Amino acid sequence: MSSGLNDTGMRTPRAISLAGLSLFGAALVPLLSLSGCGVNDVRVTVVNASGGTLDSLVISGDEVSKRVRSLAPGESARVSLDVNGEDAVGLRGRRNGVRLVPQMAVYVEAGGTLRLEVDSSGVTHAEPRAAY
Question: Is 46:60 a contact under the CB 8 Å cutoff?
């Protein structure tokens, strides 16, 4: 007669460890996709160095669009863009009710970062950094 505890491979410490890792991995994938930490993300920081209030902010490109909350003078906000491969993005919005000066689109790659800073003239300066 056997005890039933060691009759199957699923009762060994190694099998239990592997099962635990599998469950952990299966739970981790959906969490990462919900938290916006994917490999296709471009992390964008929008900085208000204009001295005025920025509102109606939208970062947009050919395949992506993301709203950014209003920013008081000196504030910044971080958002993630889901970019598949590469895209050219720009910032639209208003400074004290006046449209920001249009800018050329900035080339970004998945996994990279981008800093967009609005100056006192309402001009956006971009500093993209590629992922290495």
Answer: no
Domain ranges of the chain: 1-35, 41-129
Q: Where does residue 20 rank: exposed (0-12), middle (13-18), buried (19+ CB within 10 A)? A: exposed
Q: Supply the pTM of this predicted model.
A: 0.70
- The percentage of residues in the chain with a pLDDT greater than 90, rounded to a whole number, is 60
> Under DSSP, is residue 25 helix (H, G, I), strand (E, B) or coil?
helix
Q: Which residues contact 95 (CB under 8 A, 6 or more apart)?
A: 50, 52, 53, 54, 118, 122
Superfamily of domain 41-129: Domain of unknown function DUF5300 (2.60.40.2890)
Separation of alpha carbons 76 and 22, rounded Å: 39
Residue 10 corresponds to which amino acid? M
